[in-house]
Amino acid sequence: MPTDNSDSLQSHLDRLLATRPHPKTICPSEVPRALTSTELNNQNASNWRDLMPMVRDLLQSMRERGEVEILQKGSVVSNDIPVQDIKGPIRARKAASTNIDEEVESHE
């Protein structure tokens, strides 16, 4: 069972989003796949799939702050639908007016 130690996941999520200028997207699975085996062990995850609910939770929080948009089949999903309730593959991208780039640079 994964632990709620989301700092590493958030860091990877911020970094991936910062490398993709709007309107480019990321697949949420890229986040846990970027973790090292040590980071996976620190999360008590046996594989990257175990962390997908936590990644979706992080995306939901970022979405509520207006930092990201969630897409499915190329269209932005309404903010009325929680990320956790979206069935099937999704993509995420920085919102057009976000400052994730500056936040990542300030953390380096």
Give me a quick take on this structure.
This protein is of the alpha+beta class and 108 residues long. It has helices at residues 7-18, 30-33, 37-42, 52-64, 100-107; strands at residues 68-72, 75-76, 91-94.
Explain this structure to me?
By secondary structure, the protein is an alpha+beta fold. 40% of the residues lie in helices and 10% in strands. It contains five helices and three strands, in the order H-H-H-H-E-E-E-H. Strands 2-1-3 form a three-stranded antiparallel sheet, covered by helices on one side. A hairpin with a 2-residue loop joins strand 1 and strand 2. Helix 1 crosses helix 5. The longest helix has 13 residues. It is globular, with a radius of gyration of 13 Å. The model has no long low-confidence stretch (mean pLDDT 89).
Order of helices and strands: HHHHEEEH
Total strand segments = 3
* Beta-strand fraction estimate: 5-15%
Radius of gyration (CA) equals 13 Å
Bin the helical content: 25-40%
The largest β sheet comes out as: 3 strands, antiparallel
Shape: globular
What is the arithmetic mean of pLDDT? 89
> In order across it, which strands form the biggest sheet?
2-1-3
Global structural class: alpha+beta
Number of helices: 5
Uncertain runs with pLDDT below 50, 5 residues or more? none
End-to-end C-alpha gap: 30 Å
List the helices and strands and how they pair.
Blueprint: H1 7-18, H2 30-33, H3 37-42, H4 52-64, E1 68-72, E2 75-76, E3 91-94, H5 100-107
Antiparallel strand pairs: 1-2, 1-3
Helix pairs in contact: 1-5
